[in-house]
Amino acid sequence: MMSLSFACGGVENESSDNNVMEQQAPTPDPDPTPDPNPTPDPNPTPDPDPTPDPDPTPDPDPTPDPNDRGPAELFGAPLADDLEIVLFEDILAFPEQYADATIQTEGIVRQNCTKRGCWMEIRSLTNADSKTMNVRFLNYGFFVPVDSRGATARIQGVTSMETLSEAEYNMLIARGYTAGIVQKDDGTIVRLGFTATGVMMWDRND
Predict the structure, then answer these.
(1) 48 by DSSP, 3-state: which?
(2) Whether the Cβ atoms of residue 153 and residue 106 lie closer than 8 Å to each other
């Protein structure tokens, strides 16, 4: 009896020890607080080279301003900034509209006086075969350079118009003089001229 009681007692003690172990099982720690200043890796692996961006498409060159010709030579009086610039072709096409009017126009010097520069003929800026107009200078108060042929000129002054008879026309043609001679739609022949008070000139001798 004593032996059984001891055995039972031993079993009872083993069961009791197991209960104690179950009750004392450690509670897992909560998530640890991260280190606010982690030690950097002394030998970090470098990132691979990034793919370079392709070369950007360059902006196209701006369209040049046809009126931006750079500095001009001035002969005679300064030209007004607020005066109408009439196309040379319009003067030839509508001579009555501009007769005796103070205007500005532009053209290429086709030829000029090679002795003193006391006159010149200009043609259209864009048509080398256009008619020309004779330009003289008010009261011979100034002249242009004798090597002005081929230069771009802007002139200010008064346009004149003279109606020609058939005999006058034939005489001028026989002399080889054609500057400013225009035949209108009604068959009338006129001669245009221009008396300039000032001339601006670009690209002389270019």
Answers:
(1) coil
(2) yes
Write the CA distances from 25 to 19, 31, 170, 172, integer angstroms.
10, 19, 133, 131
DSSP 81-104: SSS-EE-HHHHHH-HHHHBT-EEE
Distance CA 120, CA 154 (A): 12
Going by C-alpha positions, the residue among 65, 26, 158 that lies closest to residue 103 is 158
In terms of DSSP bridges, do strands 152-164 and 119-123 run parallel, antiparallel, or are they unpaired? unpaired
pLDDT (tens digit, 9 = 90+) per residue, 94-143? 999 999 999 999 999 999 999 999 999 999 999 999 999 999 999 999 99
Considering Cα of 158, then 163, then 169, then 172, what sign does the dihedral take? negative
Q: Helix, strand, coil: what percent of the chain each, to 5?
A: 20, 30, 50
- What is the spatial distance between Cα 204 and Cα 145, in angstroms, rounded to a whole number? 9
Question: Greater confidence, 78 or 182?
Answer: 78
**Can you tell me the distance from the alpha carbon of 18 to that of 23, in angstroms, rounded to the nearest whole number?**
9
Give the pTM. 0.65
Contacts of 179 (CB under 8 A, 6+ apart): 121, 131, 132, 133, 134
